[in-house]
Amino acid sequence: MHxxxxxxxxxxxxxxxxxxxxFPVTGRAQSxxxxxxxxxxxxxxxxKDGQFLRQEDSTKNRVKNDVSRLDNDVPRDKxxxxxxxxxxxxxxxxxxxxxFNEAGMICLNSLGPKDRDKxxxxxxxxxxxxxxxxxxxxxxxxxxxxxxPWYSYDDTPGDTALLDFSIRRDLGPDGQVNYVRNAARxxxxxxxxxxxxxxxxxxxxxxxxxxxxxxxxxxxxxRYYSRYLQAYAEQGIGIGYLNPLNEAENNxxxxxxYKEIGEMVKGYIAPQLRADGVNTKIQLCExxxxxxxxxxxxxxxxxxxxxxxxxxxxxxxxxxxxxxxxTELHRKYPGIPIWMTEICYALPNNVPPGGPTKLxxxxxxxxxxxxxxxxxxxxxxxxxxxxxxMILDQDGGPWLVSPVHGDPAxxxxxxxxxxxxxxxxxxxxxxxxxxxxxxxxIRPGARRIDCSASGDSPELNFAGFSNPDGSHVLNIVNTGxxxxxxxxxxxxxxxxxxxxxxxxxxxx
Length: 508
What we know:
Elements: H1 8-20, E1 29-38, E2 45-54, H2 55-63, E3 79-92, E4 95-99, H3 102-108, H4 113-124, E5 134-138, H5 176-184, E6 190-194, H6 218-234, E7 241-243, H7 258-275, E8 281-287, H8 290-296, H9 298-301, H10 304-307, E9 310-316, H11 324-332, E10 338-342, E11 346-347, H12 367-378, E12 382-389, E13 391-393, E14 412-413, E15 417-419, E16 426-428, H13 430-439, E17 447-454, E18 460-466, E19 472-478, E20 483-489, E21 492-498, E22 502-507
């Protein structure tokens, strides 16, 4: 039997307001918390609570102004009906977040301790911040490992015994261990890790077509992964998910095929982790785009010996719009969650059509692009959503340059939070606010629930969720002018105005 718990603060508020005579405590109304971020200036702003009223009472109560109103100028003929059906459920949510990179810790270290803590609280605190719960942590160097030159955890050629293996750089003031530990003071989150390249000496070479791990080193690489996971555990950092390689079978990173990655997983990585008592779950490989997922992952996943070892399928969003391929992937492997584990703007070569020509962007309105991307991914079976760089500076950096490892000299990117290392000004992007409407209110273990609309609503995008605590959440992104939504849930109705160019969260 499913018992739905009402959060204590709502119960207390209803009883208190009923005692004051502001509305009757009759069981006929359901209080709804409303949060808004909009082009008009609201930023995760808590508005006056609304009420779900029984359908037979909604008309007369609307006349009495017992409904929530945010914008009294919205015309009545622009009302859109949204039906919420909590009994029809879809994927379970793992969480939302972004990525730890040395570049972000360098930016934080340019601030004083109080300001540094304020930024981290804004990202991880569940009450006043975004409440991030799912994070990415690159293994050794990537393009934003900016505290020094390219590195691996063992750069000694031929060291098959891994005698020189060390995470020493990660322990430094700008290192990943310090970054994660600081963040963990303000929230709880799961971590997934992936790697652009193994140590160079394990490869045939670094020219195009040669970036393939030598098969004789598969066992050494499996021990390398295990040593990394154990070294972080010794620092008090548990890594929940291991993704062996990032955007493989492409000419910028490793050329190794997905079929070979599958062979490594079933023949070397999974057995090594079991032998070492490491309980980190295995992902397969982070594809560079959504279509790559359905095109490349089956080469490994169609082998039952591989698929039984894989916990999550992970894709990136650099196609920008091919969301339906995720549903195709889900239908092919219905028992395995799908995560979106990387997406960002990057100049000069990686922006969507009509995208920005200068980075970083400070404008709130850019958040709508990301809000719609998150919603479209979730409505196509994505269970976890991770943005790329969490924090960068006023130049969209700093970045590491290593062309042989696919890291170019010009690589301006868009973060969630911008820290100006000269002026020490901290700016929260539109992406931050839109993402926070998901990460703060939709908690790990939530299930997406069915929501449908009638009426003309091309500028509205929305999805609903049921949290483990019994609360329900509806997120609505509006890219047009102000609209009114008539929400229908369990024979109850709520009229809610949705401001122009906004995201609105309703929680009840």
